[in-house]
Amino acid sequence: MDEEVIKWAITSLDDFQYASEQFGGCVGGTQKSNLKWEPSDKNHYKLNADVAVDNINGRVGLGIVIHDSAGHFDPQMAEALSLWGGLVLTREVGLWPCHVETDAKVVVDLTYKTKIPRSEIGLVIQDIIQLLANVANYSLRFNPRTTNLVAHCLAKYGLNVEGDIVWLEECPPCVSQAVMGDCP
C-alpha cells in the first residue's frame, strides 16, 4: 500500500477517535464541557456559525444556527442567513463565481422576486441580491435536500453541539459517508 494512504487512514482513525471521545460520537453527542449555549439579550438574534473545510475533496461546509432571545428561530430567516453567510465566505476566500444550491425554496424564490417583502427576511434577501449583483457569472437554484446532504448533515450535527467546532483541512467524521457519496 502507498504510504500516503496508510498515513491518511491512521490520521482519519485518530480524528474519528478524538471526535468520539470529545463529542460522544457524531450523532446525538454533546461536548464534554461545562460551557452551555446562552440566548442573546432581548431584541437581538444570536447567530452561531461554523465552517468545515475538506481540502482533499475541495469542499467547504457551513453550519449556521440563529435564535431569538427566547431560543426560538424562524426557519426561513435561518435559511436566508445561512445562504448570505455562505456567499460572504465564498467572496472573502476568493471562490467567485460560484454555483449556489440550497434546499430553501422560499429563499431562492424571494431572491428572484421583483418586490422584496418589507420584513427582517426581506433585508437579508436584499443583502443576498446585492452580493450576487457584484458577480458576473453565478447561479442560484433550489435543489432538494437529497442533493444537499453534506450541508444538511452538518446542520443537523450542529443541533447536538454546544459551542463552536471548526474542521480545517479534514473531513468531519459525521459527514464522511455523505461526502464520499457525493464523489464521482
TrEMBL record:
InterPro entries: RNase_H-like_dom_plant, RNase_H-like_EbsB-rel, RNaseH-like_sf, RNaseH_domain, RNaseH_sf. GO terms for molecular function: nucleic acid binding; RNA-DNA hybrid ribonuclease activity. Pfam families: RVT_3. This is RNase H type-1 domain-containing protein. Coiled coil: none annotated. Residues 55-157 form the RNase H type-1 domain. Gene3D superfamilies: Ribonuclease H-like superfamily/Ribonuclease H.
